[in-house]
Specification:
Keywords: Oxidoreductase. The chain has 229 residues and is an alpha/beta fold. It has a single domain, classed as Rossmann fold (3-Layer(aba) Sandwich). It has 6 helices and 7 strands, in the order E-H-E-E-H-E-H-E-H-E-H-H-E. Helix 2 runs parallel beside helix 3 (95-123). The protein is globular. The chain starts with a strand and ends in a 7-residue tail after the last strand.
Length: 229
């Protein structure tokens, strides 16, 4: 019997990797998407399908989801986690970095939602979980472009939530504060101990996903207790 599957983008490291491990451990079939093939080698088994794609490549994304639907059945959820964080002063930052972040963080997110929504609307069930940031709720120094992408994630997510609510489809926004990821691996010592671990974010994602379909936890913002900003 085909029981459906969950798509996880940016599944090769940090939040995506921890989320993939958790969903598999909980018995879900998963489609793992990443640009880095070597980082997905640890995932194997009957519950797992993998596709090495860039989330901005819409034809490749559609093909990967179609193949997973053929194998597992209908898509039950997507965790739009793929993202780029390139910080810099607006006066000196390379505009190519702006484009890279908007392509992945905004266009990639839109691609992910549009790729699964027709099926979810037809099923009258499904969950979209978009990974944003505290930087999508308030501003920080050197976050002009990155923060803009995450403010976009918040507004896009809420707008889509309103549109698909009549179809019994949920949209959840998760907004973490400081996280221990490869993006901030230069942080060491006592300061690093204040960061959230990816497993904590994965647990939060699964908590929202595992609620009854009639309950939509629209947004969760979480940060280390000692994070002041």
């Amino acid at each position: 019997m085909k029981t459906g599957f969950v798509v996880i983008t940016g599944a090769s490291s940090s939040i995506g990797e921890a989320t993939a491990q958790l969903f598999i451990a909980k018995g879900h079939n998963v489609l793992l998407l990443s640009r880095r093939e070597d980082r997905l080698k640890a995932f194997a088994g009957r519950q797992v399908m993998k596709a090495i794609i860039d989330i901005t490549d819409r034809p490749a994304l559609d093909q990967a989801i179609a193949e997973a639907e053929e194998h597992f059945g209908p898509v039950k959820g997507i965790v739009n986690n793929a993202g780029r964080m390139l910080l810099g002063d607006i006066t000196t930052q390379d505009p190519a970095e702006w484009q890279e972040m908007y392509n992945t963080n905004v266009i990639g997110l839109l691609n992910g939602m549009q790729a699964v929504l027709p099926s979810m609307i037809e099923q009258k069930s499904g969950t979209i979980i978009n990974i944003s940031s505290i930087a999508g709720k308030k501003t920080f120094t050197d976050h002009v472009a990155y923060g803009g992408t995450k403010f976009a994630v918040h507004s896009i997510s809420e707008n889509v939530r309103e549109e698909v609510a009549p179809h019994n489809v949920r949209v959840v926004t998760i907004s973490p504060g400081l996280i221990e990821t490869e993006w901030n691996d230069q942080t060491t010592g006592e300061k690093a101990k204040l960061n959230l671990m990816p497993q904590t974010i994965a647990d939060t994602i699964y908590f929202a996903f595992s609620q009854p379909q009639s309950i939509n936890i629209r947004e969760i913002a979480l940060a280390p207790t000692q994070q002041q900003s």
